[in-house]
Amino acid sequence: MRNGSEVIIISDVHSNLFALEAVLSRIREGTTIVHAGDVVGYYTFPNEVISLFKKWNIISIRGNHDRALINGNVFNFNEYAAASLNWTSRKISKDSLFYILKMKDTLRLNLMGKRVAVYHGAPWDNDYYLMEYEAREGIIPEGIDVLILGHTHIPFIKKFGNRIILNPGSVGQPRDGDPRASFVRIRDNWDIVIERVEYDIDKVEESIKKEGLPEFLAKRLYGGY
User: Fold this and answer.
1) pLDDT for residue 4
2) Could you give the residue ranges of the DSSP H alpha helices within the chain?
3) What share of the chain has pLDDT > 90, as a percent?
4) What is the pLDDT of residues 21-63, one digit of tens each?
């Protein structure tokens, strides 16, 4: 771990450069950042986002959009997600695609003295949308202290004594009614806080229109859904 005073958890950036930049503006360089999947999809800056992932040495797993980019299978995606992935497949650079290819689907880490597992969906199904009401201690894998999840775009933190399940919500497309980018900050005493940061959604909308992607992808950002 690089900066021992805190760890940042993010997820579901989805090629939203302006949201990611806003989050990174709140983080000190050298801080450990862990991303729970879906670097790409939906929005229009896959190469720029991956460049920032590299610059900041962000530790990331693949999400369902990342895997679909690799295998070309958008059968289970809605029309908006499929359109954006098809666009991404045409625009992504070879270096960026190789970056996604090198990622793992799950990770186990040691963060500030705790054993941590990172999944995009759930430990038994990486495409499962695990909501807060389903989060219980029994789903934490054996030998793990902290379970980090993504995929739902809705943040939560649940504690079971010294064990924790958390979802940082989404940087690039929040779905909890709050349009601000969402992330989690963990301080060295394992004080965990969900933080939100505003960013310029208008710039995202401009790029979506320029690239001919569905305007719904921008409209949902304003409402946080």
Assistant:
1) 60
2) 17-24, 46-55, 64-71, 79-91, 94-102, 201-211, 216-223
3) 97
4) 999 999 999 999 999 999 999 999 999 999 999 999 999 999 9
DSSP class of 191: -
CATH number at residue 174: 3.60.21.10
**118 lies in a domain?**
no
Boundaries of domain holding 81: 3-106+169-223
Residue 151 lies in a domain: no
**Confidence category of residue 5, pLDDT binned at 50, 70, 90:** confident
If we measure between CA atoms, which residue out of 1, 71, 64, 61 comes closest to residue 35? 61
- Radius of gyration (C-alpha) of the chain in whole angstroms: 16
Residue whose C-alpha is closest to residue 88's, from 141, 54, 127, 45: 45
60 φ/ψ angles, rounded to the nearest 5 degrees: -140, 145
Lookup: tokens for 139:
């789903």
| Cα separation, 187 vs 189, whole angstroms | 6
Q: How many structural domains is the chain composed of?
A: 1
